[in-house]
Amino acid sequence: MLGPPVSGKGTQTDLIAQTFDVPHISTGVILHAIKIDLSNPLAPEVMGFMDQGKLVPSELVNRLVAERIKRADCKFGYAMDGFPRTLEQAQFLDQNADVDYVFLIKVTDATIIERMSGRRVCKNGHTWHLKYSPPKDPAVCDTCGEPLFQRDDDKEETVKSRLAVYHGEMDGIIRFYSDKGALIEIDGEQHIEDVFRQIVRRLVNDLRSKIGWK
Ligand code: AMP
User: What is the pLDDT of residues 87-102, one digit of tens each?
Assistant: First the structure.
C-alpha cells in the first residue's frame, strides 16, 4: 500500500488484513518494536535513524521484511505498508515476493496540508481536527480538559518538507510499478469506507477476470 503521510494507508492496510484474514505487516511498527526493545542489539542503530526522521538503511529493512514474510502466518498472503520506501527496496521485494497488487492512495498535497495542519492534540494523546472532528473549544481537549496544541511535525512548513521527502522517495517507486502495469490508483479523498470499497471492487474485478467470470 503506497500513499503519502495521512493518506490513510495504514487504516486501509488494516482493513484489508482484517477482511481477508492476512497479517498486516508495517515496517514502521517492526522498526518501532526494535527501537524500544532494550535487549535488541539493533535498537541503538534503529533509534538513531528513526529519531532523526531518516530512513533506516535498506540493507537492514530488507532483511527484516524477508524474515517476516517467510513466517508461517504469511502462507496465504499479507498486506503491507511502509515498504517499499526506496527503489532499491521495491526491486528487493520484486525479487523476493510475489506482489499481486500495488495500491496507491492518491491524495493531493493541498489535502494533506489541510489534514495535518488542522490536527490538534493534548498531552494525553487525544487527537482532534479543527474541521473534521472539532472539539467544542479549539484550545481545549473535550475528553480530558487539557490544553490542545499543534505538534511540530504537523506545522505547515514541516508538512511541506515531509511532502518533499515523500515525493523524492516515492515518485521512482510509483513509476517502477506503473511501468510494470501493477499500480492500482485509488481516490483517497473520500471517507474511509468509500476508499476501502474502491479497493475491494478492484480486487473482486481482478479475481472475476482471472476466473473468466465476465
Ligand atoms: P512510518 O511509521 O511508516 O512512518 O515509519 C516510521 C519510521 O520508521 C520512518 O520515519 C523511518 O525512520 C522508519 N521506516 C519505516 N519503514 C521504513 C522503510 N521501508 N525503510 C526505511 N526506514 C523505514
Answer: 999 999 999 999 999 9
SS3 105: strand
CA of 207 to the centre of ligand 1 (A): 32
Task: Name the residue with the closest Cα to ligand 1, atom 5.
Answer: 28
**Which residues are CB-neighbours of 68 under 8 A, at least 6 positions away?**
25, 30, 74
Q: Which amino acid is at 41?
A: P
Helix (H, G, I), strand (E, B) or coil at 120: strand
Alpha carbons 89 and 132: distance in angstroms, whole number = 35
Span from the CA of 55 to the centroid of ligand 1 (angstroms): 6
Residues involved in catalysis? 9, 85, 119, 151, 162
Contact 22, 190 (CB under 8 A): no
Give the Cα separation of 196 and 15 in Å (integer).
7
**Minimal-distance CA residue to ligand 1 atom 10:** 53
Q: Does residue 185 sit in helix, strand or coil?
A: strand
Q: What are phi and psi of 26, to 5 degrees?
A: -125, 120
Q: What is the pLDDT of residues 52-80, one digit of tens each?
A: 878 899 999 999 999 999 999 999 999 99
- Spatial contact of 90 and 173, defined as CB atoms under 8 Å apart: yes
Of 78, 110, 114, which is closest to residue 93 (Cα–Cα)? 78
- Neighbouring C-alpha atoms within 13 Å toward the C-beta of 193: 0
Phi, psi at 128, each rounded to 5°? -130, 165
Cell of 41: 542489539
